[in-house]
Amino acid sequence: MFPPRNFPPRRQNRRENVNESIRAREVRAVFPDGTNEVMPTSAALRKAQEMGLDLVLIAPTQVPPVARAVDFGHYQYEQKKKQQAAKKKQHVVQVKEIKFRPNTDDHDYDFKKTNAIRFLQEGNRVKAYVQFRGREIAHADLGKKLLMRFAEDLVSHGTVEGVPRLEGRNAHILISPVKASAKPASAEKPPSAEKTPKPQ
Fold first, then answer.
1. DSSP code for 198
2. Which of 84, 121, 170, 177 has its CA 20 to 30 A from that of 66?
3. Residue ranges per structural domain of the chain
4. CATH, domain range 19-72
């Protein structure tokens, strides 16, 4: 007798929201002509097939569930386009790091400040830190002063979260972008011209 063989489980390709796979007994069927009515699922499917369309469940949690007669291939394409458009609108906030040394010169400082402003304008957070090497740690106060100067220079572009903190051989500070202020709801209307009295 041969030992049992273990086969990997088959993938279930069955669509539970299309045509015969819809389990609900009745649905609110929506058709291309704008009509919708509650009917048995079998009747709604038959009517959709007569139109050369598929019956797709679009709101399975409703009572009764809502199904629409559509071309399923076109429906999938439209749903994919919507997902891609929504993904493009999403902005993932990143933390951009700006590294200083206690003796950073003015040219390097201005270059890094320009980059930090660009990061904040893009909606990202900025983590600025001063790295100390060897005996430089004895002058940690200079690094904190440098970070405070950096924060003051970015006050119109970002909001400082806390005060400079020393962790190990690094002093760092975190700056978040300033949210755009809301525009006034209505602009001031120009004063209306005074009406001259009509001669009697």
1. P
2. 84
3. 19-72, 95-177
4. 3.10.20.80
